[in-house]
Design brief:
transmembrane helix; AceTr; about 200 residues; Gpr1/Fun34/SatP-like; mainly alpha; membrane
Length: about 200
């Protein structure tokens, strides 16, 4: 019996990641909106697009046997859903850590965990394509700046994190486009040069 294989879920996962990231990054960087304004507009995106849709993309990558993509999409989908839960009053998370006077440190620790995880994914991405390696390198820098920004309550580092996050999102959109608009339809990915041997390369 032939093994069923799903369609490529990477464009969905990348677009879900990119769109949600670019909205939050614009708030963090003060692009088009005053810095420090409420970023709760991200909650719906973080739950349903960056969260649910990206996690589904990860599950489909598991079914397709793509370990790297499955781990990345599922994990960052969970990141967005957990971040949305923090911002949702009904969960009482943000109000409780604010009441304890440790909101900055708690959010910094939360982001530190993602700095560590993203570092592992960044190293793994160096066996994929050049653009994927650039994406995860910029994402790692983004999380580092945001972690410091939250921990030290620093507008400067939050702005830097938002700026790097904005660029990271644009690159994710670009990679999604290379999946959707390929050479057979007249689009050529000038940067799709594998950093690994062909047998080691795994599609995200």
């Amino acid at each position: 019996m032939a093994k069923h294989r799903f369609a490529n879920p990477s464009p969905l996962g990348l677009c879900a990641f990119a769109l949600t990231t670019i909205v939050l990054s614009m708030h963090n960087a003060g692009i088009g909106i005053p810095y420090g304004s409420a970023n709760n507009i991200i909650v719906s995106l973080a739950f349903f697009y960056g969260g649910l849709a990206q996690m589904l993309a990860g599950m489909w990558d598991f079914a397709n046997g793509v370990t790297f993509g499955a781990t990345a999409f599922t994990s960052y989908g969970a990141f967005w859903m957990s971040f949305a839960a923090i911002l949702t009053p009904g969960f009482g998370i943000l109000s409780s850590i604010k009441a304890g006077g440790h909101a900055a440190n708690s959010l910094g620790i939360f982001l530190l965990g993602w700095v560590i995880f993203t570092f592992i994914m960044m190293i793994a991405s160096y066996r994929a394509t050049l653009m994927m390696a650039i994406l995860f390198t910029l994402l790692e820098i983004t999380f580092i700046f945001l972690c410091i920004g939250e921990w030290r309550v620093s507008k400067t580092f939050m702005t830097l994190g938002g700026s790097f996050g904005f660029v990271t999102a644009l690159i994710a959109f670009y990679i999604a486009a290379t999946h959707l608009i390929n050479t057979s339809t007249g689009f050529s990915d000038l940067f799709d040069k594998s950093l690994a041997k062909p047998e080691d390369t795994q599609e995200i």
